[in-house]
Amino acid sequence: THFGYKTVAEDDKVSLVANVFHSVAAKYDVMNDLMSFGIHRLWKRFTIDCSAVRSGQKVLDLAGGTGDLTALFSRRVGPTGKVVLADINASMLTVGRDKLRDQGLVDNIEYVQANAEALPFADNSFDIITIAFGLRNVTNKDAALASMFRVLKPGGRLLVLEFSKPQSELLNKAYDFYSFNLLPKMGQLVAGDADSYQYLAESIRMHPDQETLQQMMEQVGFAEVSYHNLTGGIVALHRGYKF
Ligand code: SAM
Question: Which CDD domains does the annotation name (predicted)?
Fold first, then answer.
């Protein structure tokens, strides 16, 4: 089946995204390593470096899924800090919590099931917010960005790690072939689920490019917004501040 992603109504997108992540949760980490040849680990490390996180800080890892960023942050903020891993999907949260507990990371992590569009936190709560490969799954991205702005402390920063627009035509073509032909096949082979990986390819294609996302962040109030292309723009890291 084809998801017909561009034409589904908003409610349908919510349940579509829910089904995709319930379906991939158990195989999510191994698929990430396979699909990106392990490079997602470098993109995530770069995100942590750009966060300038310090011991004692309060971090929100939004759409945190299986908790890769949460694990890195948890070690950096130490016992006096806190990391909240928030995700809309219970299956992803469960896989994440089990994984982090197995790594002995327990004391400074909280798990919250929440929709990025309406965050259940007080204003000015977090020093740092990250959303990695999450924003493109959110139906109302402007509402989500505004909600992140609200819960960020003045002086705090938001980091958005997301697929973006490859900067060269050649890379763009190779990448399209990879994501629309090879990716669903790998999904079928490894996770027994081609549809979810077809959705992934389509959601990447639909996602706003570097400049558009920068403008969207500025429109909800973020200041000094800039971005850094990674792997030729296949992925970009956007950063903005709340002053
Ligand atoms: N951040 C993790 C990482 O980089 O490995 C997980 C990324 S995974 C591709 C996307 C996550 O976004 C899923 O866990 C999904 O449940 C979550 N998600 C989708 N829509 C969401 C929403 N509206 N609010 C919060 N989380 C959402």
Answer: AdoMet_MTases (cd02440)
